[in-house]
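Fold this: RpiR family transcriptional regulator
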Amino acid sequence: MTIFSPNINGLTKSEQRILQFIQDNHISVETMTIQYLATQCNTSTATVSRLAKKLGFSNFHKFKLELLNTKYDELYDAQITSADSVEHLVLKLANSNMTSIQETLSLLNIEELKYVVELVRNANTIYLFGVGTSGTVCSDFYYKLNRLGKNCIYTQDSHIQTASIVSASPDDIAIGISYSGTTKEVLVPLRFAASHALKTIAITGVGTSPIVNICDFVFRIPRHEQELRVGAIDSRNNSMFLTDLLYLAMIQEDVSQLKTIFETTKDLTNLLK
């Protein structure tokens, strides 16, 4: 936190001690009262207030707000490394998630989303393709769609999943999720679907890739390269954010009917307890 370096000229030893304490404990200082901070530094609340004013703030509260802003500025594009404390890890991951979702929103075409929602709603069968991290998104979407009574096909066995598309018809749709856009287990069935007049939808990272040239509709998610990559976490969260949008938009028009389905599902699953 260089803006609050304890080497600022014109400070008393007590004030320098406070700044050094903040430097060493800046994660937790934001929740401290002025009384608690003063006690931890063996000084008075008046000294803490005087320090805040010397640094250009009208009071201790505004000083803490600037400390918080500075902390997030430093963590905004920070990489996660093995040297991070748990406190830093919490902040970096939370910020990474929030930032990447905001970037995903900026890439979203709402009109295209509405059109795809109708395709999913009206499809006889929905085929999902994805492996690895993308496969977890497919599994989540699969369970949501099946709970709505939609005929959806997905299995984690990519060979069985690829073979399933052979029996598809033009009234069906195929959705492929691939962060790289180059996953063979996703591309092969999507190509087959496209060649047999199915509407095809992709969720993939920004940039050019084979999946973009195959699909009728492409939803983009941002790409992140980091030292200890949270890229797989971000791509999963962003992809699931998009499938959740599709799911929520689908159920908007059928709330009363779905309430009955969800209540029946709850009653049925309660029998397993």
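The domain at 97-270 is CATH 3.40.50.10490 (Rossmann fold). The first helix runs from residue 13 to 24.
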